[in-house]
Specification:
The complex is a heterotrimer.
Chain A lengths: L1 H13 L3 H28 L8 H17 L7 H11 L2 H5 L5 H31 L8 H27 L1 H4 L3 H14 L11 H9 L7 H7 L6 H35 L2
Helix pairs in contact in A: 1-6, 2-3, 2-6, 3-6, 4-7, 6-7, 7-11, 7-12
Chain B lengths: L1 H28 L1 H25 L11 H22 L5 H7 L2 H5 L5 H7 L7 H17 L6 H28 L7 H16 L7 H10 L3 H12 L15 H26 L2
Helix pairs in contact in B: 1-6, 2-7, 3-7, 3-8, 3-9, 3-11, 8-9, 8-11, 8-12
Chain C lengths: L3 E16 L3 E17 L4 E5 L6 H8 L7 E6 L8 H5 L2 E5 L11 H12 L3 H14 L15 H13 L5 E5 L7 H17 L3 E5 L3 H7 L2 E6 L2 E6 L1 H7 L3 E8 L12 E6 L2 E7 L5 H10 L2 E7 L3 H10 L8
Parallel strand pairs in C: 3-7, 3-8, 5-6, 6-7
Antiparallel strand pairs in C: 1-2, 1-4, 8-9, 10-12, 10-13, 11-12
Classes of the chains: A mainly alpha, B mainly alpha, C alpha/beta.
């Protein structure tokens, strides 16, 4: 199967940078510790802040660290390669390949995500569990739901990064747009401050934005705060954004395709 | 001998200014892009503080410190990091340069390597972070109900100067580390941006062992924590002597020497392995 | 005194190689092994050898980037490993594959920056810049950022940049790599002119043997870290027992030509290729062919230096037990 081969290739490519992976894990852990203590301070003051208890908050903190690279919250992954190929004009070759363009890049990004989940995801979670008292999924359903939610989170993130990268078709350089996207992504995914802490109506808003699919939904499933219908609705929420954003990608790529055909890249 | 070293230092500084000035001119020729990126930096780093404000929707103090006090810590740390980042932020690309082989080009130019590495693609847009930190610092000063004695006022520039020097040394250490592992640049972030994040909050939220580590092992507590204890009139949670509140130059000096040593042995290593 | 003096120069590296899945084994590699040579002012020397022979390691030591493991080294009277920064003012370096210019700066700004870094006085800088702009045809490119230049344009920019401070020695690492024939020709012409007009000593490594045929009076061949040849190009031919080729166009197709002193290498209809030793005169062979056959046309092609060098590399006396 072509797509599996693409994913495996991406997985292998990332796995050659061992020193970079170790350095990244170290950094994730340092930030995990720092943020843990700020959360402890918050929940000491208000043991029920945002409806979480302190164990929920600490679990959230470490899972968020685990998601940074897996979900590529800061950007990067396969869409970055696409942006580079747009700049050099090599993308014209990709567009004429007899395979689904989005599928091609998604497979590659899923391979990358798998590698990052097993290294930059697993390692900080283990370290966090050693240092702090964390909560683990209470049931098989929660485990399974969490894994599905992570895959969906990667796809939502992929679609957003793809849209950002596609801006290079028109702007040639995606750097500015990518920076901006990274800020939105970092803030509205709840990387710095959990979305449950957002006050009043802002909380309702950030909860329906696509970025809440990155960390908040998977973590709530992990914590067992979403079970049964709520778990399914969480996944449905992610699927909904996947569909909308991938459709948008397809639309943008069709436009881009026409542009490449007309102007020759 | 001594005069030769002094001459080299002076020339290094001048070359640094020449190189940086060139990059500023280049960034000015893309004015729109410069303005957008600077504003971007301003808001990106500003969201950090928004996050803290959001936390304060659920609590009214963290580690016994009010939002205004945390604003002072946050602004101080951010200002020091921002100044250091502006001065030599791109030194962290060293590993990349070594991998690509472009570090050799620096070695065949008549300018000290350190000056070249610091000035590499000098990014003036980093004043975005500095401005943001200044805003928060200024707001906190107006919001704090403090009796601004001369000593307290003087302590503010003292804090900024020493804190900046400490971060400069940490950036340099992180870069020198890349002479050994070129892929390891991300680990340096744990100390630079990690050091910044850790000092944005009152250290009272951390266990005492952690405060000791941040004082004696990775001495980022001297960036803003000890001087701020003096300014804010707060007791030291470790009960250390009051002299600690003025000891930031010692930390800066020790770290600076370590950084110089690490840089020199890194260059020596590069020149004997070529990689 | 010679401009470049190299005495018993050695450079070893410790390479950690993976043995099995996790174990690594340290191995000492002699990149440059007991190398000695001198280069006089005004020479143009080709420094050639297969990949990994030690060419760039030598250049890196000559420029002060690498410190030698053993041996003595002096460039323009300076010890490169001790006074690297001082040396940089006396030499120019061009790396063919990577530019030493600033990627995002227009050429003009790069040059201006170099002027200030090398502290070249303004009058001399103006004169040099005007001359190089003319010779290298840079006029239309000065305001283009380096990243937008083609490879050939960038190489010309790099050359000018390396010469603005009037270095005595210019090191060129693969200067013509990736260039088209016209650009190569123009580049060689420029190098010849700075050698004769400005008395710049040139040391160039290359894979393109035409560079050497057209530029260098002297060739040094390095293999496995040692010099295996140092002398003229003609001597190199003799050393490699190279052959010249006589191409004979007969009036009609015939059996392979049989003349003393030459062997038929190829027959294609009426055309035949004969090879004979490079150091032998072509006249008797030509006379013998013309006497026995109806010849429509004759031509002689010079020996292929690539073959010669390949022979040196693989020659029996160069076999190593490593």
């Amino acid at each position: 199967m072509l797509y599996v081969a693409l994913a495996v290739r991406a997985f292998r490519r990332y796995s050659t940078y061992i020193a970079a992976t170790l350095a990244g894990i170290f950094t994730n852990c340092v930030f995990g510790v720092i943020i843990s203590f700020t959360y402890i301070a918050v929940w000491q003051q208000n043991p029920d802040a945002g409806g979480y208890d302190v164990t929920d908050a600490l679990t959230y903190c470490w899972l968020a660290q685990a998601m940074i690279m897996t979900v590529a919250i800061w950007g990067g992954g396969a869409p970055d390669e696409l942006a580079a190929r747009i700049r050099t004009g090599d993308v014209a070759i990709d567009l004429y390949r007899p395979v689904n363009f989005l599928g091609w890049w998604l497979a590659s990004d899923l391979g990358r995500a798998a590698y990052h989940l097993l290294t930059r995801g697993l390692a900080p979670t283990a370290v966090g569990a050693l240092l702090f008292d964390l909560r683990f999924p209470p049931s098989m359903a929660a485990w399974a739901g969490f894994l599905v939610a992570v895959v969906l989170a990667v796809v939502v993130s992929f679609a957003i990064r793809m849209l950002v990268a596609s801006s290079a078709f028109w702007l040639l350089d995606q750097a500015g747009v990518k920076n901006l996207a990274a800020v939105f992504s970092m803030f509205f995914s709840g990387l710095v401050v959990p979305l449950v802490l957002f006050p009043g109506w802002t909380r309702d808003v950030v909860m329906v934005l696509p970025w809440s699919a990155f960390v908040q939904v998977p973590v709530d499933i992990w914590l067992g705060r979403r079970t049964g219908v709520s778990l399914l609705s969480g996944l449905a929420f992610q699927v909904g954004w996947c569909v909308v954003l991938l459709a948008l990608c397809a639309l943008v790529l069709r436009r881009a395709n026409r542009k490449v055909v007309v102007q020759g890249g | 001998m001594a005069s030769r070293t002094a001459q080299q230092l002076l020339w290094g500084g001048r070359a640094y200014l020449i190189l940086s000035w060139m990059w500023i001119r280049v960034s000015m020729s893309y004015r729109t892009s410069f303005v957008v990126l600077t504003l971007g930096q301003f808001f990106i780093t500003g969201l950090d503080f928004v996050a803290i404000v959001i936390m304060f929707a659920s609590v009214d103090a963290l580690g016994g410190f009010s939002l205004a006090e945390i604003g002072f810590l946050y602004g101080g740390s951010g200002l020091c990091l921002g100044l250091a980042d502006l001065t030599l932020g791109n030194i962290e690309r060293l590993g990349n340069r070594i991998r690509m082989g472009t570090f050799d080009a620096m070695m065949v130019r008549p300018v000290p390597l350190y000056a070249q590495a610091c000035a590499d693609e000098f990014s003036l847009r980093r004043i975005g972070r500095i401005t943001q930190a200044l805003f928060v610092l200024a707001w906190s000063i107006t919001a704090l109900d403090l009796d601004w004695s001369v000593a307290r006022v003087l302590m503010v520039p003292y804090l900024v100067l020493c804190g900046t020097l400490i971060f400069l040394a940490i950036f340099t250490l992180g870069a020198a580390f890349q002479f050994w592992t070129t892929d390891g640049s991300e680990a340096a972030n744990a100390f630079t941006y990690g050091g910044n994040t850790v000092t944005q909050y009152p250290l009272t939220i951390y266990p005492t062992e952690a405060i000791k580590a941040l004082t004696f092992i990775v001495p980022v507590a001297f960036v803003n924590w000890y001087p701020s204890l003096f300014i804010l009139g707060r007791p030291d949670p470790l009960g250390l002597p009051a002299a600690m509140q003025f000891a930031a130059p010692v930390a800066a000096l020790v770290l600076g020497l370590l950084a110089a040593l690490a840089w020199r042995s890194g260059v020596r290593r590069y020149r004997s392995t070529g990689s | 005194m010679s401009l470049i003096q190299v005495e018993n120069l050695s450079r070893t590296f410790v390479v950690r190689r993976r043995v099995g899945r996790f174990r690594r084994e340290a191995q000492v590699v002699r990149a440059v092994d007991d190398l000695s040579f001198t280069v006089d002012r005004g020479e143009m020397v080709g420094y050639i050898g297969p990949n990994g022979a030690g060419k760039s390691t030598t250049i890196k030591m000559l420029t002060g980037i690498l410190v030698p493991t053993a041996g003595r080294l002096s460039v323009a009277g300076i010890d490169p490993s001790r006074d690297r920064v001082e040396l940089t003012r006396r030499i120019g370096v061009v790396f063919g594959q990577r530019t030493t210019l600033w990627w995002d700066l227009p050429l003009r700004d790069s040059f201006e920056l170099l002027r200030r870094i090398y502290r070249v006085d303004t009058a001399r800088f103006r004169r040099n810049l005007a001359e190089f702009t003319e010779l290298l045809d840079l006029g239309g490119l000065l305001d283009t950022p380096v990243r937008q230049l083609s490879l050939g344009q960038r190489m010309r920019g790099d050359l000018a940049a390396a010469l603005l401070h009037d270095p005595e020695i210019l090191y060129l690492d693969e200067p013509t790599i990736g260039l088209d024939v016209v650009s190569k020709g123009r580049l060689r012409e420029f190098l010849r002119s700075i050698n004769t007009e400005r008395d710049v000593t040139l040391l160039l490594t290359t894979h393109d043997l035409q560079d050497i045929e057209q530029l260098c009076s002297r060739v040094m061949v390095i293999d496995h870290g040692s010099l295996v040849y140092d002398g003229t190009l003609a001597g190199l031919h003799a050393r490699g027992s190279s052959t010249r080729t006589l191409v004979v166009d007969l009036v009609d197709a015939a059996d392979p030509i049989d003349v003393p002193g030459a062997d038929v290498r190829r027959v294609d209809g009426p055309r035949q290729w004969l090879s004979f030793p490079a150091d032998a005169s072509a006249a008797p062979v030509v006379a013998a062919v013309a006497a026995r056959y109806d010849v429509a046309d004759l031509s002689i092609s010079e020996p292929d230096i690539e073959d010669v060098i390949r022979q040196i590399y693989t020659g029996p006396d160069q076999l190593r037990f490593s």
